[in-house]
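Let us work through a complete example step by step.
Step 1: write down the sequence.
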Amino acid sequence: MTSRPYLSESTRRLVSERAMNRCEYCLISEKDTILGCAIDHIISLKHGGSNEPENLAYACVFCNRYKGSDVGSVILETKEFVRFYNPRNDNWTDHFQLNDATIIAKTSVGEVTARILGFNDERRIVERQLLILKGRYAVP
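Step 2: predict the structure and record it as tokens.
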């Protein structure tokens, strides 16, 4: 078994700066989450993804944990497999919209991503409501 390349500090900095220090999935700012953000492999290493910057995203701990090494999920009604939102290739507003503090899916990609990453778990909605009230959460 070969070892995986280590992510350098410069790569970590590039990913966080490119994301403006916000989770690229749910859009929370790193400074608004106690647990911070981590580097996510959009396509996990075990699925053949790489440590190259185009396969890396900045993700809050909750999005990163819920996503794990998954690359997509199944639409429950149709049993169709659908990939997750990819911050390198997709535009957030094409797949999601913010309605009050709830993130609404506009596409099947948005649907599986929002469901699996737990965008609208009750605590996360309350957190977004408070951040919106303070002017600290907005869709770019």
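Step 3: interpret the result. The two ends are 42 Å apart (CA to CA).
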